[in-house]
Design brief:
The protein is built from 33 helices and 21 strands. With about 850 residues, it is α+β, with helices and mostly antiparallel strands.
Length: about 850
């Protein structure tokens, strides 16, 4: 059965991406390609599954970007882990950047006028418990599922689960609209026996009130409003967790259909291979020193036709920017540095990672998702990330990056998690000529000479770098000693205060602090000023937003003051979210001021623009704010979501011309496709022929093939000829014919109707209308279905078209066309019949 969207939930240990093609628009007169619509099962696995793994001192990171594509209402993942992980969003381009960190792209310059043994991976920090996150808690009952934690991560709703059995997990997934693949019970029960946890992930496309995580939540209502769909690339995700050994939980991936081509990037203290996976799949191993050089040094320079000295000064000047590694592997540098920072601090999540999750939460409340908003988030996080990278990245020199690439055996994957052993790849295979990470195969051979440093002073460059690092080490040591001294001083002061009876002040202070905590946890009793303060507290921000929105107009001025005065970007974002949910007309003008003001950052202005779009409650209001997408590209998605919400399933739309005019906005065209098509083929065909605006006619023709009803029959009825007609059916504008899958009978009926109108226009002296019909009769889908040839030449007469049709359909069909308008006996037209004998 034809549907605009398919409720599909896939259970995978790896992932998904998707895209929807935009419709092409055709010549001003003639056939129009249809708006692309999705039918059937759209989930398709694409390419190799890529996984990044880092392990050091008992902390492991796994990063994956799902390797499926499609357009779905829901998509889910189920991933087991030995302990409760910290979860974060990772940039979608992370894997190309990791590959470029291993084998950086070369910058080409042309001289002018030339054109260890096998064994277990060493354990650095044994863990106190080797099981899952349950620790000392009692095992679950057979039929029980415990929700350990829930959170929102970008486009995902994430639940970390413990299960008493595969059957209990299966039941939970069914209740939450995931699909539990057959044959997976034994593997899941193995994970249950080992006390592992399961991370269940689903896209946040359902009704927000039904899927928002909240304390004590045991069920989610993800039912979509009519006509709503999810499309677009899913986000890459990172999981950081504690484990007493390096292990990759990939057993469930064996239940995915298709080839199991995997590329695994492993960053560990020793070079490794995967047990029971052929050693030939170990393609490359890179020392930490080489990896550090690739991440921080300039890209390799290959000079063709001479040497570096022979390059012109202009070429050398341009090479400085061209050899910047940041655009190629900067994401990998951030990822590796973040992992090393977490490992050295002993935490699973860094402060800037938590800040990014909060920015994502604000964006999701406003419908913002995608590369544009991610780039704005990166600008806000850049300073915090830069400090972390500088501090932690040098520790990568003690590690090794291993690349494992091949089609993994399905039985091996199903039998056990991926476990690793020390292995060093032979030197003859460990070079880019044998395997280049960016090409996933041998590197193409090139001539010329390769330079690694800046200019010709490579040795000097390395010496200066070592001296700088030595100075940095000395400064770091000095600060560490100073910090320890400060701790000793404060401890002494505290002891002296205790001797003087200062302890008696601690109890009242603790009570005051506790009262403040109670106020923060009960927003309904807090003052507006206290709620404004809670916008800076991630744990209470969303509850504060809900209460501020409930207070309505009384909260507008305090929120505006907070936006003007707040130092933290996240507090400003939550204030804008609260404003967007207050039903007061004054908010619109205030949001307009914010997104138009250069005093605010582009991220804040984008939030304000998205909030303004969220408040549009009619198609006219939406049309008024649609131009914001030109200034703020990130708001295209909220614009589409709001449009889809306003028109619903399209059947009750009264002003189709207005809806089509709105659909001319590129950001809205695909979002409105289900609603426009649902109005039915007859109404769309009428708009295609009679709308006052040419673009509206053209867009209506593009939507007709996917329209509800019988589009071919609607076109036949609309173009039906009448000898008493005073004008053509498409009067006052261009003639479009939709690109349908024409049957021979339907195509023939439309062709004969067009030929009748061509003759009518000839007899009434309407050459402009004849030209429009010429264009429609020339298009290939209609000609091929009806089976007639195209006359040669530019301007084609009515006689030529009648002759072409008569050769395909017969003389009698042409005679009927002429007789209907009473000209069959006139000499001019009798000659046509004579030629057809």
């Amino acid at each position: 059965m034809k549907r605009w969207s398919n409720r599909i939930a896939a259970v995978v240990a790896i992932g998904l991406t998707s895209g929807v093609a935009a419709p092409a628009l055709a010549d001003p007169c003639g056939m129009v390609p249809p708006i692309t619509m999705i039918e059937g099962d759209p989930i398709v696995r694409v390419g190799a599954q890529k996984t990044y793994v880092a392990y050091y001192k008992g902390i492991e990171t796994v990063v994956l970007r799902p390797g499926f594509e499609g357009k779905v209402d829901e998509f889910g993942m189920l991933i087991p882990f030995p302990s409760v992980p910290a979860i974060r969003k990772v940039d979608d381009n992370i894997f190309p950047h990791i590959a470029a960190a291993i084998d950086p792209p070369e910058v080409l310059a042309y001289v002018q006028n030339a054109v260890r043994r096998r064994g277990r991976v060493p354990m650095r920090a044994p863990m106190a418990a080797t099981g899952g996150a349950a620790g000392a808690e009692a095992p679950l009952r057979y039929d029980e599922v415990r929700v350990v934690k829930q959170e929102a991560v970008g486009m995902y709703e994430v639940a970390v689960l413990e299960a008493g059995s595969a059957a209990a997990l299966n039941k939970w997934m069914d209740q939450h609209q995931f699909r539990y693949p057959e044959g997976m019970d034994d593997v899941v029960n193995d994970y249950v026996a080992d006390r592992w946890v399961f991370v269940a992930v689903k896209t946040k496309v359902g009704q927000k009130a039904g899927v928002n995580p909240r304390p004590g939540m045991k069920a989610a209502n993800a039912k979509l409003p009519a006509g709503a769909t999810f499309s677009g690339h899913v986000q890459a995700m990172g999981f950081r967790f504690r484990s007493d050994e390096l292990v990759v939980p990939m057993r469930l991936s064996a239940f995915n259909k298709g080839k199991l081509h995997n590329v695994v990037y492993v960053l560990t203290d020793d070079p490794v291979a995967i047990r029971r996976i052929p050693k030939r799949f170990v393609r490359r191993q890179l020392s930490g020193a080489e990896l550090y050089r690739n991440l921080t040094g300039p890209l390799p320079l290959r000079v063709i036709g001479g040497t570096y000295r022979q390059l012109t000064p202009w070429q050398k000047q341009n090479l400085v920017k061209q050899r910047d590694p940041e655009p190629h592997n900067g994401l990998a540098k951030d990822l590796i540095a973040s992992d090393l920072l977490a490992i050295t601090s002993g935490t699973l999540s860094n402060p800037f990672e938590e800040q990014e999750k909060e920015l994502l939460a604000i964006g999701e409340r406003l419908g913002l998702r995608g590369a544009e908003i991610d780039a704005l988030h990166a600008q806000v996080l850049a300073k915090a990330k830069e400090r972390a990278v500088r501090k932690a990245l040098r520790r990568v020199k003690a590690l090794t990056m291993t690349v494992i690439d091949g089609e993994f055996d399905r039985d091996v994957l199903a039998r056990d998690n991926l476990r690793f052993a020390t292995y060093r790849v032979p030197a003859r295979r460990n070079k880019p000529e044998a395997y280049d990470a960016r090409h996933m195969g041998p590197r193409p051979r090139r001539g010329g000479r390769v330079y690694r440093g800046k200019g010709a002073s490579i040795e000097r460059q390395e010496l200066l770098e070592r001296q700088r690092l030595d100075r940095r080490h000395r400064i770091d040591d000095w600060f560490r000693r100073l910090g320890f001294g400060m701790v000793v001083v404060f401890a002494g002061i505290a002891f002296a205060c205790r001797r003087r009876g200062a302890v008696r002040w601690l109890v009242p202070l603790a009570l005051i602090a506790g009262a403040g905590g109670i106020a923060a946890a009960t927003p309904g009793r807090a003052t507006t000023a206290q709620l404004i303060e809670q916008l800076s507290d991630r744990d209470h921000a969303e509850a504060a937003v809900a209460e501020l929105a409930r207070r309505g107009a009384d909260a507008i001025d305090p929120l505006l003051d907070a936006i003007a005065d707040a130092d933290e970007e996240t507090a400003v974002g939550w204030a804008i979210v609260a404003l967007s949910e207050i039903g007061d007309p004054r908010v619109d003008a205030e949001l307009d001021k914010i997104h138009a003001s250069s005093a605010y950052s582009m991220l804040v202005r984008t939030w304000a623009a998205a909030a303004r779009i969220a408040r549009a409650d009619t198609l006219d209001a939406l049309a008024a704010v649609a131009p914001l997408a030109q200034t703020f590209p990130a708001v295209q998605r909220p614009l589409g979501l709001r449009a889809a919400a306003l028109v619903g399933d399209g059947r009750r739309v009264r002003d189709l011309d207005k809806l089509l005019a709105l659909a001319q906005t590129p950001a809205l065209r695909q979002a409105l496709a289900p609603a426009v098509s649902a109005v039915g083929a007859p109404r769309l065909v009428r708009a295609m022929l009679r709308a006052r605006d040419m673009r509206t006619r053209q867009l209506a023709a593009a939507y007709v093939p996917a329209a509800r009803g019988n589009p071919a029959a609607a076109v036949r009825r609309a173009l039906r000829f009448s000898p008493r007609a005073r004008d053509v059916p498409w009067r006052g504008g261009p003639l479009y014919v939709p690109a349908l899958q024409w049957s021979k009978d339907d195509a023939a009926a439309v062709v004969e109707a067009l030929l009748r109108w061509h003759l009518w226009a000839d007899l009434h002296g309407r050459p402009d209308e004849q030209t429009k019909i010429d264009n429609a009769l020339r298009v290939w889908p209609l000609r091929s279905a009806a089976g007639y040839g195209q006359p040669r030449g530019g301007k084609v007469s009515t006689e030529q078209w009648l002759l072409a049709w008569g050769r395909a359909a017969g003389r009698d069909r042409v005679r009927a066309i002429l007789a209907e308008q009473g000209v069959a006996r006139q000499p001019r037209w009798r000659r046509v019949l004579t030629v057809l004998r």
